[in-house]
Amino acid sequence: MELIVNGTRHDVAAPEHARLLDVLRDELRLTGTKLVCGRGECGACTILLDGEPAYSCLTLAAACVGRRITTIEGVGTGDALHPLQRAFIAHDALQCGYCTPGQIMAGVALLERTSSPAESEVIRWMSGNLCRCGAYPKIVRAVLAAAEAMRDSHAG
Amino acid sequence: MPGESSRSPSARRFVATRVEVEGREETKVVELPQFEPEPWQQDARLTIVGQRAPRADALEKVTGAARYTADVQRPGMLYAAILRAAIPRGCALLDVEAARTLPGVRDVMTGDDIPRVLVQERPLFESTVRYAGQPLAAACAESARAAESAVLAIRVRYEAQPHAVTTAAALAPGAPRVMPDGNLAEGGPQTASRGDVERGLETADIVIRREYRTPVALHTALEPHGAVAEWEGDRLTVWESTQGIFNTRSDLAAALGLPLTKVRVVQDYMGGGFGAKNGASANALIAALLARRVGRPVRCVNDRAGEQRDAGNRPGTIQRVTLGATRGGSLTAILLDADITMGAGGWLGGPGRIYHELYSCPNVRTTERFVYVNAGPMSSFRAPGHVEGAFGLECAMDALARELGMDPLDLRRRNLSHRNESNGRAYSAKHLDECYRVGAARFGWAARQHDSGSAGGAGGAGGAGGAGAPRVRRGSGMASQTWGGGGGPPAYAMVRINGDGTCDVLTGTQDLGTGSRTVFAQIAAESLGARLEDARVVLGDTERTPYTGNSWGSMTVASVGPAVRMAAEDARAQLLEAAAGMFDVEPNALEARDGTVRATADGRCLTFAEIGKQLGDVMILGRGTRGPNPEDTSLSTFGAQFAEVEVDLDTGAVRVLRVVSVHDCGRIINPTLAESQLEGGVLQGMGYALFEERVMDESLGVQLNPNMHDYKIPTLADAPRVDATFLDIADPAANHIGARGAGEPPIIPTAPAIANAVADAIGREVTEIPMTPWRVLG
Q1: Which CATH architecture group holds A83-155?
Q2: CB pair distance less than 8 Å for A33 and B64
Q3: Which of A139, B111, B180, B451 could form an S-S bond across to A93 if both were Cys, CB 3.0 to 4.6 Å?
Q4: Are B54 and A90 in contact (CB under 8 A)?
Q5: Cβ contact (<8 Å) for A42 and B57?
Q6: ipTM (interface pTM)
Q7: Is B396 helix (H, G, I), strand (E, B) or coil?
Q8: CB of B164 within 8 A of CB of B343?
Q9: What is the pairing mode between strands B654-664 and B637-648?
């Protein structure tokens, strides 16, 4: 099957029943997307499918043919970080970092939907992404700060 | 002096010292450092230590580039899956023939195929089943899915026997034998006492008695236990998600009969540990054994169900507490009688110890029964014992305060201890009273609202009010903590100055997500006079770094930090010696700062890079050793937490609105990272107080919630506002960087502070956690 991941076409030899998560991690070696619960309970495997957040552990790879798949590796790297990635660093919105790719994917989806989310909206939207280290207070701050930075850069 | 090699031949260089590890005291041999830097006093002028430097590995973590154990891919690597027992007790007979013939399967391994190797003191793949979830066999295959299919195809014939999954069942007459030597660890109760408790109760004006229950709690680190093993000839490399690479190396070497030279353990990024990952896991042994049999690398990572059933836990407790006090509120007796749910193995980490340490009281006795049951073995879990014990003791203190008609904070202040009464030693420093003062002020303790006893809805947070409006009450509570965290030897570090002026800090510790990569770079840059961005910490690899111990017991900063500082100072002294010729002055006429060496007399400068260029391939290598702890001194952390809650009287739902967390952990190396630790500890403690509980089916003896939906850790929507504060008072008597640990302290007082706030809100004590709605509604 042919998958478009982070703007690149990949010809993938995967069985019909393969989870998107396994194809990303094991075939394409995009290991930023994490397997934690494997049943849609924690959000660690969140990716974007045509810009909408999706749990890659509950998504069949075959169902993604022809759709735009974005993983953490496609959000930003090195000097070209997404404002949300910069905000996660600036606000220390992570500890062990295992949930971070999923958190950032969820946050990016929110910021694409709304440029000025209320704090309550951030809390509601992000609460499907579990963090065991307890970075939650700083995750909220990081998302709000990124929204502000993105508004400023549009205004400027 | 750094750099001097003269050493008196008669001076003894290796001596024994006492070190507290996870609440236990151990005697260790320690190397006396060749020089000990002067302690950084409170007013030391530090420019990098104490700064809010961003986390050193944050970029890798936000881009997905950080490679965790479960992400390690080796050429030709196979995937392993583990067969786990479906019954709690009996015998399992395996037929693996069908499993072997499935497509993609390369090996199926049972207890008959392996040498006797021990995991948590029990043989791996033992056919005698002691708990549901116990590993029985493993398979490896070309894909994870094929390995899972192979495990499902193993035919298991169980001969089930009666089981016991509660302490009551395991202590009943004629109870099934969980472990070969009986159901009580060490054959009987463990008692510790001082003074005369009976006399203390006789002299008390008021005696209160309570029974508290705490659940079995699961670590639920997002990265499960896992390992990748690869053999090159007879040399083994294991990538493992571990809190102790050197412990893991010795475990593997012992199990496989290898010299330490043939085992390398690597742990780069780690997705949390919280105490459950302290040595070679079953996963590491399975991966190593399978890899040796099939001649290919093998990855063996727990699936979530396996992780939640068999990766350790915080044992459940029943604590029967008796407190005696004078009318004025001075404690005369503290008595604890406790049953602890061990599971099928574990160590004696009980709730008793904090009863001896937290308050001044002449008469204390604790009796603990560590009971084996047919369930997953316990392991260390963030402040093991103290979290459970603090719940009982600190709830009982509030009950006593109510009996006495005293403010709970005043009662605690009345019973402040000025030395560690459990061993008679002085504290290196203790500022608990200041934690109380700062915490009470930040919380607004004196002006707090009391809703209990008043009409429903008085909290005012329930919305518009009127008919049908939720009946919501607010309440406030507080609790205190003490924990070790003083660290100790042995720990080593090396600082290597590179030709371009950058430096590598090599130390065999781990970064669990705690920030050790960041804080050791800060300590090294400060001590060397380097720029922070030029210092890189290399850790988590037994072949690249000198020894340090496990990252447990809030010990890492206080253990490794002094070694890093000494190594950096040693390297700086050598650098100045090397530069002296270039400046044509004595080394002591030079100073290093911001990556530049300056002549103090005339201000001439050379950057580290310029010096490095002139030195060519001359290697400047500083060596640091963690010296012994001060004699007869208790090194402890202290703290106080205040919580405000809202309780819905109709649904029983508890919402924690805010927590003020103030701790005395010595000097803070990086306030931002330390605050993150406090916030995380508070949130984990809140989960323990309100949601988290391993649920067992008593008749089947299996766990009902081995997943993340039914085992509920806090979500963002549950998070309170957390005001995380450190006193940040250096403790130069503890060690020469003046720091103590901060990882475990914040989880200890969280659950009792919340429970005390709930009692304040509803006017009734809730003595069992988690405080689920039906327990709150009573």
Answers
A1: Orthogonal Bundle (1.10)
A2: yes
A3: A139
A4: yes
A5: no
A6: 0.98
A7: helix
A8: no
A9: antiparallel
